[in-house]
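User: Show me a protein chain along with its predicted structure.
Assistant: Here is one chain, sequence first, then structure tokens.
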Amino acid sequence: MKKIIAIGLIVSLVLAILLSPFASSSPDGLEKVGEDKGFIEKAHSLLTGLLPDYLFPGVSNEKIATAIAGGLGVLIVFGITYLLMLMIRKKDKSKQI
């Protein structure tokens, strides 16, 4: 099982790093509506994102900054998911005793 997880993580990282620079630069649906209806300037975020605009800060090349952000996003989601899995597994073992 660990081998399958490792392979999945590596494939996900490679795909994120290679494909994320080709993501659409167009705004998402909600942002597009805000622009079209003229209220985008009034928008504000309750939380600032870890990687605003999907760019890794401090990297001048936009494609590389996007690739790094994509790879980091995969690692963050994997880490959170893995920790949740460990917590659930630990909880299940304590019920069996």
